[in-house]
Amino acid sequence: MPWLSFFSHIRQWFQSACYFFRKRVLLEDALKILFEQEEAGSQVCPRDLAQTLNVPERCVDRIVEALVERDLARRSGDRIVLTEEGRREALRVVRLHRLWEKYLAERTSLDPSEWHARAHVLEHTTRQDVVEGLVAQLGDPRFDPHGDPIPTDSGETQGRLGKPLTSMSPGEFVEVTHMEDEPASAYRELIDRGLHLGARLQVETLAPTEIQVRHHGETVVLSPQAAANLNVKAIPRYEFAQWEKKPSTLADLRLGEEAVVVGIAPLCRGLVRRRLLDLGFVPGTKVRAELSSLGGDPTAFRVRSTLIALRKSQAASILVKRENETSPTPST
Asked: Which residues pair with 234 in a beta bridge?
């Protein structure tokens, strides 16, 4: 019987801990939503908050009451507005989220579609000493991998660069400055189309049902929602010309053919990118395709007197310059 009582107390403690953690997560998520909407020049009512948090409106009423009690928000008519203290707390959570996204992008092999969800968990459980370690490892970055500004420790933040792709005109040359990662389906579409921060595009058509852009010599079709998730800035024609044609990669080399490495493709990040660099595929290095398996994959490349076997998918991430070919400048 004493054991039953002990386990009953443990279960009650666990349920209580889960309840308070879930409540804190909801409050911090609400602060982030209010901050991001205010930054976008929008106001938020309880119904908007309920839809974004995906909770019933009656639950939002309790969340708002808790924010008001803690002097983190106040009601202004039917709108919810952050107080100064609420804005500071929201900036703290936003800073954590974007720092973790930067870390996951640069220091892990996670797929880009997983960064947001993983960072959302970590932002609610990170101690201050861990934050300081993150900043030291990453070199106090100013932007996350999506192009969102990372608030400083004192709460200062830069504005988001560029304007929506859908606001540009056909024929314009642009560079991607921000990729919104929500909803996840739209972000996945952008990744699957090979787009990334720094990508140079030419706007071809803007229609209600689809948007077409030119990227690496090919027409890329985007849904209106995915296109609206891209921020861009106008660039001169000559900056686009470097990337008008699809750059050559190690995967394009025939056996016996040589080339010089000019960089790693921007979509290749994290541990995979670091491994390729550690193997010697750094700018200026000469490589030669020497051996191939019976099926053609993998292929062994001669790099500084060493044979290194790579899968085609890995070789396709290494940009090269063949003889008599203009060297591209990798965008980041």
From this structure: 174
CATH label of the domain that carries residue 267:
2.30.30.90
Asked if residue 149 is part of any domain, the answer here is: yes
Q: Which residue range is the domain that position 308 belongs to?
A: 250-321
Comparing 43 with 10, the larger pLDDT belongs to 43
d(CA 116, CA 67): 25
Work out whether strand 230-234 and strand 258-264 pair parallel, antiparallel, or are unpaired: unpaired
What pLDDT does residue 330 have? 52
Return the closest-CA partner of residue 26 out of 71, 75, 70, 67.
67
Whether 264 is in a domain gets the answer yes
126/122 Cα distance (integer angstroms) = 6
For tokens 């739209």, the residue is 186
For residue 88, is it within any domain?
no
- For the chain, how many residues are written? 332
pLDDT in tens, 16-39: 445 455 788 899 999 999 998 888
Please name every residue paired with 221 in a beta bridge, in sequence order, or none if there are none: 212
Q: Does residue 52 sit in helix, strand or coil? A: helix
Per-residue model confidence as pLDDT tens digits over 128-171: 888 889 999 999 999 999 999 999 888 888 777 889 999 999 99
H/E stretch holding 38 reads: helix 2-39
Mean pLDDT taken over the chain: 87
Q: How many domains does the chain have?
A: 4
The confidence band for 328, taking pLDDT boundaries of 50, 70 and 90, is: low
Q: Is residue 298 reached through a cis peptide bond, with omega within 30 degrees of 0 on the bond before it?
A: yes
Q: For the chain, how are helix, strand and coil distributed in percent, rounded to 5?
A: 45, 20, 35
Interatomic CA distance for residues 291 and 249, integer angstroms: 17
Q: How many CB atoms are located within 10 Å of the residue 234 CB? A: 13
Cβ neighbors of 21 (< 8 A, separation 6 or more) are: 124
Question: Longest C-alpha distance within the chain, in Å?
Answer: 84
